[in-house]
Amino acid sequence: IADKKNADLRLMMKEFHYADIAEIAEELTKDEATYLIKLLDSEKTSDILAEMDEDLRESILKNLSAKEIAGELEELDTDDAADIVSELPKDIVQEVISEIEDKEHAKDIVDLLRYDEDTAGGLMAKELVKVKENWNVLTCVKEMRAQAENVTRVHSIYVVDDEDKLKGRLSLKDLLTTSTKTHIKDVYISKVDYVTVNEKSEEVAKIMSKYDLEAIPVVDEIGRLVGRITIDDIVDVIREEADKDYQLAAGITQDVEADDSIIELTRARLPWLFLGLIGGIGAFIIMEGFEKILAQGYAILFLFTPLIAAMAGNVGVQSSAIIVQGLANDDLKGSINKRLVKEMLLATLNGIVLAMFLLLFVWLWTKEPQLALAISISLVAVIIVAGLIGTFVPLFLDKRGIDPAIATGPFITTSNDIFGILIYFWIAKLVLGI
Amino acid sequence: IADKKNADLRLMMKEFHYADIAEIAEELTKDEATYLIKLLDSEKTSDILAEMDEDLRESILKNLSAKEIAGELEELDTDDAADIVSELPKDIVQEVISEIEDKEHAKDIVDLLRYDEDTAGGLMAKELVKVKENWNVLTCVKEMRAQAENVTRVHSIYVVDDEDKLKGRLSLKDLLTTSTKTHIKDVYISKVDYVTVNEKSEEVAKIMSKYDLEAIPVVDEIGRLVGRITIDDIVDVIREEADKDYQLAAGITQDVEADDSIIELTRARLPWLFLGLIGGIGAFIIMEGFEKILAQGYAILFLFTPLIAAMAGNVGVQSSAIIVQGLANDDLKGSINKRLVKEMLLATLNGIVLAMFLLLFVWLWTKEPQLALAISISLVAVIIVAGLIGTFVPLFLDKRGIDPAIATGPFITTSNDIFGILIYFWIAKLVLGI
To answer: Residue B153 has what pLDDT?
Structure first.
């Protein structure tokens, strides 16, 4: 389509939502996408840019002048604008900022740049509607109209005192239904949830979803209202958090996508595979230690090692996943000991059911009841230990302030492989009396 | 605290948010929780009930009369009320509904009951603010005040024609800034995103988060406005979806939590463990087929089977996780063949790096270069095949309309264990010429 039918293209794109155009742009080559962005006016392109994939955005912005970038930023809310500025090469940031005509907007963006990406400060936007407590409803409505110009969606109206300290909130609905002469002081709701600028994004997400909030005000260390966070940004936080945990469980670090380059994907995957390799070598060394068994005619024991390792891994992943999820959703109660006892009962129950089946199979296959018994008893022990490790490790990591999500996946499967095989041979030897 | 100091308790609870009380109630015994609910007034308890864990809610409701339950439902939005009604035992539903005094509210709840939980109809609430296109702004504001009484948060005002068909929307902001005599026809925005009642919840979530919507109107098959879905319900859908995928990847079916009973947890975990057991038995049978190698002095090959199985499993989980996530986020482009070629390159690269390391280790340990070479070449082959299976299976399941999330986890590790061991022995035999 991009063979320069500008008028047609412009007309076509007018019909599309910016999120759709961003998706289309991602399908195009970089040059085509840049061309498309230059073609449309900045009111639309700014939203498209904010919506699109980081890598693509970066390469498009490279082809725009500082003035053009400033034009885009001018159209965006401060939070999205600050996100884009933080990705720009350091040497042009200064220039871009100075090209922004609306000095207030530029100042707000610069303010936001100093907050860490993963905190409330990094998520918030400067756009909000605030009123002073000693205004009356009429002044309030007038002021609000002016302020609302810059705010895409008014959620709550925040009430502040003369020092800009957050006092409470006011709903649009209340404002609609009170007389114009009433003082704000007398109608506002003093109970208002808020977060401070340094709160972790995950915490903000928990608070907002727990209390079903659609926007939350952000205050600085001394209680002054500095911004607000809206639920749509929180939806992104929740998604990213979930994606990260899912990838960690699968043994992938960093935030990679299927369409990233092979080098990026390797960097995210290889370290975990390497961990698995070390684990496998560990298992080999352990098995070599039991090699004498081979000579004694019990070679068959070695043929069950993949089964034992797989079961230890599976049980470990299951129990750690439940704990990691419980920690993430804040709904774990009771002590570590209680959890461990519960997991032990659960693992014993599951282990016995599975071991009965294995006993039957080995017995029928080999006609050696004692061997079947030895393998089955080992299996139960392995499952119990694997369950306990899977429960303990994430709880321990969490207590130490480490993200427990790394405990599910290669980390737990590898350690459980090793422990599993060790326990297996040790118990089998004991039962068989060799 | 629950030793009957009613007045104190009531005062204390007044200070708390309902979400906090719900959390407190979950820590209490069932009797205490019921007692607490009976103590407080239904305006607050209804929200507490809506917020709390399903199991606890069920047992509390058992101790309430139909009239009391109806009182709670009366205070709730239709969507939350319908959720609670759908959990009640069938024989008392009729009675509870007939006890609801507000007949309109009761009708709305009954309407909502007929939609599937996982569709837009199951998520939506009947509460919304709608205006007719031929009203003027003044009538509109008057009508809205009345309607807004029942609506906790007004997001958009929906514009309908005389047949109740959705025509467009109006923002509160616009209403604030236009003259009172203007006709709605002339100011409303005709472009409005909507979903139909039968749309899947996941789809609704995708649409709302893609377009950053905070509420979306729901229309029936012929375009009549029947409800609206707000973003806070979508946040729950996203969380549940992520939790489900995470659990499936860890080999846990059904939506279980760490605090569920051992029986429930076993039911969710045992089937997947059983699958792993079958896989292990499969691996045993394959290895027995290669038993002749044992006699020929190559017993050492068997000591590497856990390593081979672990690597095959890890690679399979990694590649399937990336595909599953790409499918969930709708950002996979290009054909299956292209994906498979990419994964093959990636697996080859990772495989060679890992195999070099293994080669060195085995060589130094056994002083048998040919054996080391055989094992390393097998490892590369195993990793490539595991990567391809991990990529292909979720894409295949998705094409067939099956949730690809089941492909990550025990399903892929088990099949990769078997294929991995088979390929390993086969190639090792070939290279060693036995």
So the answer is: 65
Axis-axis angle for helices A410-432, A262-289 (nearest 10): 10
Q: Fill in the amino acid letter for A66.
A: A
Choose from B53, B174, B277 for mutation: most chain A CBs within 10 A. B277
- Separation of alpha carbons A118 and A251, rounded Å: 23
Mode of pairing for the β-strands spanning A225-230 and A166-171: unpaired
Degrees (nearest 5) of the Cα angle A4, A8, A10? 90
Give me the amino acid identity at A364.
L
Q: In A143-283, which ranges are E strands?
A: 156-160, 166-171, 195-196, 215-219, 225-230
For A61-127, the DSSP string reads HHTS-HHHHHHHHHHS-HHHHHHHHHHS-HHHHHHHHHH-S-HHHHHHHHHHHTS-TTBHHHH-BS-
Res. A185 pLDDT band, cuts 50 70 90: confident
* Edge-first strand listing for the sheet containing B215-219: B195-196, B215-219, B225-230
> What pLDDT does residue B196 have?
92
**Residue partners of B293: CB distance under 8 A and separation at least 6:** B299, B301, B302, B425, B429, B434
Q: Which amino acid is at B31?
A: D
| Cβ atoms B25, B55 nearer than 8 A | no
Number of H helices, E strands in chain B: 21, 6
DSSP β-bridge partners for residue B7: none
What domains can you pick out in chain A, each with its CATH number? Answer: 6-114 (1.25.60.10), 123-236 (3.10.580.10), 262-432 (1.10.357.20)
**Chain-chain contact of A307 with B281 (C-beta, under 8 angstroms):** yes
Shortest Cα–Cα distance, B221 to chain A (Å): 24
**A-B contacts (CB, under 8 Å):** 309
Q: Give residue-wise pLDDT tens across range B134-151.
A: 888 778 777 777 776 666
Q: What is the DSSP letter of B129?
A: E
Which of B145, B240, B307 should be substituted to probe chain A, the one whose Cβ sees the most A Cβ atoms within 10 Å?
B307
| Contact status, residue A151 vs residue A78, Cβ threshold 8 Å | no
- For residue A344, pLDDT beyond 90: no
Judged by average pLDDT, the poorest of A54-58, A399-403, B73-77, B162-166 is A54-58
**Global ipTM:** 0.78
pLDDT classification of A217: cutoffs 50, 70, 90: very high
Q: Which two tokens stand for residue B353?
A: 């790096």
Region A257-272: what's the mean pLDDT? 83
Selected residue with higher pLDDT from B434 and A73? A73
* Residue A347 C-beta-side C-alpha neighbours within 13 Å: 29
DSSP string, A285-339: HHHHHTTHHHHTT-GGGGGGHHHHHHHHHHHHHHHHHHHHHHHHTT---S-HHHH
Question: What gap in Å lies between CA B289 and CA B402, rounded to an integer?
Answer: 34
H helices of A201-261, in order, are: 201-210, 231-249
Chain A partners within 8 Å of B273 (Cβ): 311, 314-315, 318, 350, 354, 383
Element spanning A129, H or E: strand A129-132
Given pLDDT bands bounded at 50, 70 and 90, which one contains residue A377? Answer: very high
Segment A179-197 mean pLDDT = 82
- The answer to whether A271 and B350 are in contact (CB under 8 A) is no
Of the candidates B348, B46, B333, the one whose C-alpha atom is nearest the C-alpha of residue A26 is: B333
Residue A38: predicted pLDDT = 78
Report whether pLDDT(B339) > 90. no
